[in-house]
Amino acid sequence: MPTEREKMVGGELYIASDPELTAAREHARELTRAFNSVADEGERQRILAALFAGAGPRLWIEPPFFCDYGFNITLGENVFFNFNCVILDCAPVTIGSNVLFGPAVQIYTASHPMSAAERRASLEFARPITIGDDCWIGGGALILPGATIGARTVVGAGSVVTRDLPPDTFAAGNPARVIRELSD
What we know:
The protein has one domain: Hexapeptide repeat proteins (UDP N-Acetylglucosamine Acyltransferase, domain 1, 3 Solenoid). It has 4 helices and 20 strands. It has helices spanning 4-9, 19-37, 41-51, 116-120; strands at residues 14-15, 54-55, 60-61, 65-67, 73-75, 80-81, 85-88, 93-95, 100-101, 106-108, 110-111, 123-126, 129-131, 136-137, 142-143, 148-149, 154-155, 160-161, 169-172, 177-181. A 7-stranded mixed beta sheet has the order 3-6-9-14-17-19-20, with no helix packed on it. A 5-stranded parallel beta sheet has the order 2-5-8-13-16, with no helix packed on it. Strand 19 (169-172) and strand 20 form a beta hairpin. The mean pLDDT is 97.
């Protein structure tokens, strides 16, 4: 029988109050509290290495930063998060290289069933999010469960990404839609 963590990562309904998941969230909170309160850059990098599943060189995160677990987050190289970003990483979050996040970007893999009975039973589910190389996510954007953002795509500030966005596009709005194609 799969554990609640295996169900969570696998996209099945799971119970977030499971003791293993609760302990994992608390561990991530301890690490993010330490990260958010430490001024020494070397210490910050050590904390991030302990928090994330993987991160390439030249990762820069302006505090405060928050995430649910950390173990579901994989980052390429040269990734920048501006102030006050949040990642609810109940499912895998894969971020490519050379990606920029404006302030207050929110990445949510977590969701709840439409069924009131399932919600009353404390069931949740999650869908993975993938952000390709060379993307720029504008400040205050929301990336919702299951979305994939193609390489080199720019998401306008305040946009709500509810579905996949193709590569080499500028998308904006609520819900975000492709405004135009981009070329280098």
